[in-house]
Amino acid sequence: MDFLTIIQILDSTIRLATPLLLACLAGLYSERAGVFDIGLEGKMLAAAFLSAAVAYVSGSVWLGLLAGIGASVLLAMVHGLASITFRGNQLISGVAINFLAAGLTVLVAQSWFQQGGRTPSLMGGARFEPITLPFADALSGVPFLGPIYGDLISGHSVLVYMAFAMVPITWWVLFRTRFGLRLRAVGENPAAVDTAGVSVTRLRYAAVLICGVLCGVAGAYLATGLQAGFVKDMTAGRGFIALAALIFAKWRPWNALWACLLFGLLQAIALRYQNLDLGGIVIPVQVMDVLPYILTVIFLAGFVGKAIPPRAGGEPYVKER
Amino acid sequence: MDKMPRWAEVFLVPLISLLLAAVLSALVILAIGENPWAAVKMMVSGALGSTYGWGYTLYYTTNFIFTGLAVAVAYHARLFNIGGEGQAMLGGLGVALACLYLPLPHWLIALPIAAVGAALFGAAWALIPAYLQAKRGSHIVITTIMFNFIAAGLLNYLLVNLMRPVGSMDPATDKFPEGTHLPTLHDLLAPIGIEFSKAAPANVTFVVGLLACLVVWLLLWRTRLGYEIRAFGHSEPAAVYAGINPVKITMIAMLISGGLAGMMAVNNVMGEAERLVMNAVEGAGFIGIAVALMGRNHPFGVLIAALLFGFLYQGGAELALWTSIPRELIVVIQALVILFTGALDHMVRMPLERLFLAFRKGA
């Protein structure tokens, strides 16, 4: 494996890690506030479809992004309604949202575009174009650092940089602001937050809303950045890999970055090599596909470190009367 | 005192939830420019208008009985088994191994052996999540989701690399030998003079499914183990205080659940395809969630809900065939049923409870 191949694989890792990272951070806000969310997949899918559809019709990828966020936030509010207001089962609500998105996207896509449940291919301004960072061309002649800067760091779409910027921002919001402290408290001990006179309901809705926005960006990136248009079931389990990454990261933003990069790397390798030959031992592509899940199960089992979820996670808060 | 009478609890709440799901589904059909009434008529005639339609409806029903029972049994122990999909996939592997590699001369022998193989493999796939939940406290929902994906990868590998016959491009096993052919409803009903469609895939497994409902009911409400499972589900501390071993109950409930999900493979792999193909389960494991929720986790409720979803599935296939409404309409209906009967249960329940309380005060 030469230097250029490594750069290419890492480059593809960054692209593939971006939707995972956005969805993972989305789940982080929601679950830190005590609302479990296995509907990340569905929200991403809905956002992917609507962003591609609106971007195609309007020709503007930014309108598409907004529409995608809108679709995702709508589903997030359904989740909030079910799990916060009506104190329903958060897991069941997440399952319902995943199926709702899987069905509705194909149904509406078929009704609008008649192309077998997909949107037409996006071109020009309907897609997020790669951005060339300053000096990328000038530095391309420099050995080693040139390709790293020019090919690996530069040349991604704006959403990729946004996703990576969200990591320190999320850290700062959660651990350095009053809102973040309350958000984490509401996921650990909502009764204490309520006693302090802060609305549990409002905080949890805020968390679910942020989760919806980030899932929306993730979905829009899938359909308008990573690929050019929406196809049926295009999230392909990414919402669940993000969930796995979230557990792997012990619900912490910086760890989430490393977990998503690791899972992105696995996807990039699986995409490039059908069967990976490591000096005589051939690793089939299916192993790469399922490795994130296996790693998460091993991690969950507590054999390497322990993943402890927010204590009030999954439980609706009933105010004392 | 209960907040509302039992008949309202058992019939009225699910009925209203179902009605809400139906109204929203009708609105979705309207929104994509089709006529909901015409769609319903086509679904009824396509799924129930002929023995051919019934044959498919009952075939799907059989799948959903098994996956629905699987979710229900786990739910009584307050375990949410989302892994029915993966467990049914592994059940298919068990059926395929039994049918391909064991000498099975007649279906009367093949059926029980394949069923045991399916149940064993399905249960084995539930074993690790069950152990991790019971012993290490890893959340069963997350682990069973992960195991669905791992099952898909495993089957993909086995079918592409190991079990595919030499020279075949298709990622599927060889056809099962003749002796393992299960009689269809046509074969079963012809001797007693009932004409049933020859082409439909409904087979003797439907009868096994009905038996499974009965057995699960007996297990849950007429045995000590069933009592322990339900007690554990109601209150873990109380169950522990009563001397019920939580690790044991968690493991057993999940193994039964996985076994039931695995047994679905007798219907779809052995009864219909007669070979193991990729993605043989086709989401039936997830529909089990909707079926169990709608059936209020009672075996007979599961049976009725499975029939309804069997009808929806066959009706939806007819719609996709004759109109421009894609099959995904069923996925939307399924989602709405899960949403209203599961997650938004309180939304339906709270106003009803208030209504009944008001009546009671007046009386």
What does this structure look like?
The complex is a heterodimer of chains A (321) and B (363). With 321 residues, chain A is an all-alpha fold. Chain A has helices spanning 3-32, 40-58, 61-85, 90-113, 145-153, 158-176, 178-188, 190-195, 200-226, 238-248, 253-272, 285-300, and strands spanning 275-278, 281-284. Chain A has a single domain (3-300), classed as Orthogonal Bundle (ABC transporter involved in vitamin B12 uptake, BtuC). A two-stranded antiparallel ribbon of chain A has the order 1-2. In chain A, helix 2 (40-58) packs antiparallel against helix 3 (61-85) and helix 10 (238-248) crosses helix 12. With 363 residues, chain B is an all-alpha fold. Chain B has a domain at 62-310: ABC transporter involved in vitamin B12 uptake, BtuC. The longest helix of chain B has 30 residues, at 107-136. The mean pLDDT of chain B is 91. Classes of the chains: A mainly alpha (321), B mainly alpha (363). Chains A and B meet through helix 3, helix 4, helix 10 and helix 12 of A and helix 5, helix 6, helix 12, helix 14 and helix 15 of B.
In CATH terms, what is the architecture of chain A? Orthogonal Bundle
- Total beta strands of chain A: 2
Tell me the domain tally of chain A. Answer: 1
Uncertain spans of chain B: none
State the gist of this model.
Chain A is mainly alpha-helical and 321 residues long. Helix content of chain A is 68%, strand content 2%.
